[in-house]
UniProtKB/TrEMBL annotation:
Signal peptide per UniProt: none
CDD domains, per database record: PRX_BCP
Domain of life according to the entry: Bacteria
Organism: Sphaerisporangium corydalis
GO molecular function: thioredoxin-dependent peroxiredoxin activity
EC number(s) reported in the record: 1.11.1.24
Protein name: Peroxiredoxin
């Protein structure tokens, strides 16, 4: 059954905080460079020039329009649905995030070619980076879920400052309004 990945259906299950990210704040980011949708690599332990913080929002996987979900019960997995609306939220709030001193990247375990298509189709003004080899995931013990034989990231957001995880948003719900939540937090902590 096809669906529109840009629209969140009503009644999605709300993910619960299982504590999987509780120990991340205060942790140094490993010096990992990940392949980026725009070419080259992005270091996750370095804040890009001109920014005070790096916001890394992690998501399970984006879908292409008309593409069926990974599994028929995808919408029943808490926190699985909403990757495309979340990316669009960060896109739509990009100017405000920049003004608040943050650079943004999206992180998933999808390969770079898949991410490149999504970044271009959604007109994202920031890169999507691939942890297909689970290098960063394993180094930090990031929360994952296994679906249809694939190890995917759960939805969370890390705020990195001076190479250290300053804050972690987890769980994230609803994903389509998460960028606004991050922006409000950034504004509140930079005053």
């Amino acid at each position: 059954m096809s669906h529109d990945p840009t629209v969140l259906p009503p009644g999605l299950p709300v993910p619960v905080d299982d504590g999987a990210c509780a120990g991340l704040p205060g942790t140094a980011m490993p010096p990992v460079a990940l392949a980026a949708s725009g070419g080259g690599t992005v270091r996750v332990d370095r804040t890009p020039e001109g920014a005070d913080r790096l916001v890394i929002y992690a998501y399970p996987r984006t879908a292409r329009p008309g593409e069926d979900p990974l599994v028929p019960d995808w919408d029943l997995i808490p926190g699985a649905r909403g990757c495309t609306p979340e990316a669009c939220g960060f896109r739509d709030n990009a100017a405000g995030l920049r003004a608040a001193g943050a650079a943004v990247i999206g992180l998933s375990t999808q390969d770079t070619a898949y991410q490149r298509e999504a970044a271009e189709r959604l007109h994202l003004p920031f890169p999507l980076v691939s942890d297909a080899g689970h290098v960063l995931t394993d180094a930090l013990g990031l929360p994952t879920l296994d679906v249809a034989g694939e190890r995917l990231l759960r939805r969370f957001t890390l705020v990195v400052r001076d190479g250290v995880i300053e804050h972690c948003f987890y769980p994230v719900f609803p994903p389509d309004r998460h960028a606004e939540e991050v922006l409000a937090w950034l504004r509140a902590t930079t005053r």
